[in-house]
Design goal:
The chain has 135 residues and is mostly helical. The protein is built from seven helices and no strands. Helix 2 runs antiparallel to helix 4 and helix 2 runs antiparallel to helix 6. The chain starts with a helix and ends with a helix.
Length: 135
Amino acid sequence: MSGVRFFDTHRPWEDWVGMLLGFLIAFSPWLTGQANYGLGVLPEPGLALMNTVLVGALVFGFSQLEYLVLRRWEEGCEMVLALWLIVSPYIFGYSTDGTLRIWHAALGGIVLLLAALELWQDWELSEQELARHGQ
């Protein structure tokens, strides 16, 4: 039963994991060796690369913002970013080959699950309880 209690409270380590995930997303093209890969059939293949870096930076930023000032809308934004990262390989045309699509699906899924957990933990908290987060 103590395992259930562990997931009832939004803990600061969850925000640190979110920041780490944002870092991994932003640098995933280089970690997979596909930064110079002609991502997709877009007229500008660098657009997919910029998308990945931007999504990673935003996930990192929202996680850092959660660590400082906890609000429910931050988790919602992370969930939208996670879904966008999951569908990005199909939108930008690199869904048929390479490991980057697998990384984006996996990292997006982890961010989505973490954001859903944090939103569930914070759902019934008052504004005063949210303000005390991390103290």
